[in-house]
Amino acid sequence: MRLVPVNCLKGGEIIAKTVIDENGSRLLAKNTSFKSYYKKKLQARGIDRIYIADKLSEGIEIKDVISEKTRLRTINLVKDTLSIFKATQQIDVTQLKTSVIQIVDDILSNKEILYDMVDIKSKDDYTYGHSVNVAVLCVMLGRKIGAEKSYLKKLALGGLLHDFGKILVPDEILNKPDKLSKDEFDIIKQHPSHGYQIFKDHPLLTPISKVMILMHHEKVNGEGYPLGITKNQIHEGARICSVCDVFDAMTSKRAYRNEYTIVNTLNEMERMTKDHLDEDLFKTFRGMICYYPVGTTVLLSNDTIAIVEQNKIGSIDRPTVRVIYDLKNNEEIFRRVDLSATKELKVERELISEEYMNNPSILRAMRP
Ligand SMILES: [Fe+2]
Fold first, then answer.
1. Which of 256, 291, 309, 310 has a CA-to-CA distance to 115 between 20 and 30 Å?
2. What is the CA(312)–ligand 1 centre distance, in A?
3. How far is CA 259 from CA 116, 118, 255, in A?
4. From ligand 1's centre to the CA of 360, what distance in Å?
């Protein structure tokens, strides 16, 4: 399977990964055929690329970090927990705790710890999808630093609930597509305290999950919010949450901007270790993120286009690729190259949707 821009699909292609809508149900189901009228439906939700299975990408498989079942179930539980709270002011996290066990078990069942995926979220679904992804990343980073299973479960629950306090922020501020005024930003900045107030006396949450909610916007230089505390005063769980939150937010498309590529995100986060993010945790985090996830399309340094076939620990920036097109000679080719075994060739950059659509040669190469 591979990731392609929705714009270049004609209809009839096989959908390789389920796309979830804002209600947590399947917008596009895996293994069904793409219909051209889906394009509008997807674009209205801010989804401009999906995974398809075709001849060009035959044999390329993506290993999910957590199963689709666990992901869907958890997204729906986060959503239900929020809406029940909105209606009744009651919080029931019993079921979320079973989801947390599933997330941790799914992740621990993988031998390797690599985040090798692009998560497609619709813009309306951002809150729930983001919570689940932050939880997944927190568990992965926790595992990488050698945390025990009980700590991983606390990290997962804190990750799922870290932004819960946003429920008390008015929707028009939360979803405002334009730049926020200072007053509006001050209201958004209250969400960690709101979240903490909601959960501080909850018997089913441990102190670690609670401080993740309270401290996930603190910065190591003391200029974060709400407490303004510095690195060693910020609980490690919250520093983990902060790294994962920033990564998932930047790699997601939002109402006010497009997503960053993974490489741009990691470079920006590297700069953020000077004032915001924990440097050691970020270094560890960087080591588990594949720069070019399986199924993405990349431009190589010799002007050829390739689909990423496989990533390996230790060479996360040099995947094995399937070269499919030579841009210099405008011809199709088919060659497998392990970039970790050659010094002559490297990935120049990930090709993004706009590049496909504006460059006829690239589009020709990529069309299913
Ligand atoms: Fe937040």
1. 256
2. 32
3. 17, 11, 10
4. 41
pLDDT interval class at 252 (50, 70, 90): confident
What would the pLDDT profile of 70-106 be if each residue is shown by its tens digit? 999 999 999 999 999 999 999 999 999 999 999 999 9
Q: What is the pLDDT of residue 91?
A: 92
Provide the token pair at 18.
Answer: 């389920």
List, in order of start, the domains of the chain with CATH numbers: 2-62+294-366 (no CATH), 68-286 (1.10.3210.10)
Q: How far is CA 222 from CA 229, 230, 280, 320, 332, in A?
A: 5, 4, 17, 42, 54
Q: Report the separation in Å between the CA atom of 162 and the middle of ligand 1, taken as the mean of its atom positions.
A: 6
Contacts of 90 (CB under 8 A, 6+ apart): 84
Q: What's the gap in Å between 16 CA and the centre of ligand 1?
A: 32
Cα 187 to averaged position of ligand 1 atoms, centre (Å): 12
- Ligand 1 center to 316 CA (angstroms): 28
**Quick one: which of 29, 22, 32, 155 has its CA closest to 101?**
155
- Is residue 197 very low, low, confident or very high in pLDDT (cuts 50, 70, 90)? very high
Residue 48 has pLDDT above 90, yes or no: no
Structure tokens at 144: 């990488």
Ligand 1 centroid, distance to 15 Cα (angstroms): 33
In the reported structure, the alpha carbon of residue 188 is separated from the centroid of ligand 1 by a whole-number distance in angstroms of: 9
Dihedral in degrees, nearest 10, Cα atoms 354, 65, 116, 335 = -100
CA of 36 to the centre of ligand 1 (A): 37
User: Which tokens sit at 295?
Assistant: 């199924």
pTM of the model: 0.94
- Return all residues near 257 (Cβ < 8 A) that are at least 6 apart: none
Q: Are 116 and 62 in contact (CB under 8 A)?
A: yes
Which pLDDT tens digit goes with each residue over 221-231?
999 999 999 99
Q: Is pLDDT larger for residue 260 or for residue 155?
A: 155
